[in-house]
Structure formats: structure tokens, C-alpha cells
Design a protein that fits this description.
Length: about 280
Amino acid sequence: MRKILILALFLLFPSSGFSQGLENYLILNDIGEYKYRPKRTTEIYGNSGILISTGHFDRDHDDITYRTRYVHPVTILGVGVEVTQHAGADSDRWLLHELERDFRTYYGLPDDSFVARQIENDTVIGLSVAGWTYRWASGNKIIQIQYHDSQMTKPEPLEIVKAYLAKHPSTLSPMTSADLRATDNKTRWIKDEMERRLWLCEKWFLHLQMGKAEQQETLQSAVKNMFIFLDYREKYYGVKARDEKQLLDNYLINNDGTSIKAKLTEYKTWWKVNKTKSINLP
């Protein structure tokens, strides 16, 4: 409902003070040779933007996402821009971690096309698959610029990237693509993901206790995050996951929140003992 309301307000009152707030996040004019396309492409959503797919917890706060598009009239290259203002809530502790989630495999290893780049002295991470996806953080804001080019023959829209870096300077620490693949970096990201999945379970149960989440949704979300934790534990610590996942499945089928929560306590205890130990990287 909030997503629809925000978008409707912008469409009904495009010149209002509400739409003027867009200027804090988006560039509402042409950028170099790229033409700004506001009609039907400039949108505002009450959600966490590109971090939704990571499981980013937003039940206790409101994030706002701004989207627009630019088109090059000669190459007909369309470039999408998305800026999300995160609310500074507890879940923002994971922003930099979640920023990389889509650029890594299920088990947290860097995708072959995942790179770190320096553009205008700012650090940007990117993925080069049938085009480019550029991402960075600017404080509590997350910026993504993306275009598709299956043949990878069209010039990169670096003037748009540079313009948005000038508006929202990257606060990512300097890094290289080699840094992303260093053993220490891979180990840290994997362990942080295991920690985050248990943290997400805790957040869901807390909101259930506060009456701010439904039991079925909470149990489904908790089991989903526990499954990922168990998969990582099996791959990197050698602890078999199958029996544990079957138990959790049965608890979920029977709506047994007490047993699921007990399993979370068990996993947290195991993690406290083992998280500083070395892991088996491929």
C-alpha cells in the first residue's frame, strides 16, 4: 500500500514539493548525451530496493527507493538508476555486506565477473554480465546503476556513473578485485553471512513476540535463514545438514514454533564456540 501511495502522489503532483524531494536523490535532467526520461520511469517505492532479495530486515523501519532511467539517443542504450535511502535502523549494520550478496555465489564466493573499480577516486563494485551493474554505498544510501548489452559492444555510461558519484560519493573503503578474492576477505564475508542469518532469525522471533509479525511468516522466514546457515556450516565446517533440515521441515509443517526457536538457540550456541575457527575454503 505504501509503495502504491508514494508512486501515486508523484504521478498526480509531479511539480509538488513531494517531487522536489527527488532532487536529493536523482538527477532530474539529461546527463551528457544521455536523455532523462521522467515520464513513467521515475518512481518512488517504500521498500529496501536492491537489498530486498538479500533478506534485508525492514519490518521495524521505512526505507525509500527512488528509480529513474536515461536513454542514449544514438546507441539506444537504456540506463537504470536506483537510489535507496535506508533509515539508519539496526539492520543497516549489514548494508555493506548485503551490497555484495547478489555478486556472490550461493555459498558466498565472489562471482567470476564480480569486480571492484576506482572511478573518479571512488570505490565502486560491479558485475559485468551482458552489460554492467555498478553499486556503491554513500553513508546509509545504496546506489545502483545498470544497463544491458548482450554483446558488450556499447560504451559504458560512465558519465552517468560519475555524475551520481559526484552527487552521492562512495563511502566504500578502497579495494581491488584481487582483494575481493583474498582468503581473509572470503572468510570474513562467509562468516558474516552465517552470523547475519542467525541475527535475522532473532529479529523475526522478536517481532513475533512484540505482536508485529504473524507466526506463519516468522517461522517460514526463520527456517529459510536456518537452512542457509546449515548449508554454509556443512560446506565450510563439515557438519552434515540433511537431518537438521528434515527436523526443521517437520517443525514447520506442524507449526511448532517452540522447537524451531530451540533449534535457533542450539545453532547460536554452536556458532559462538566455532565462529573463530578456520573454515575449509575451496
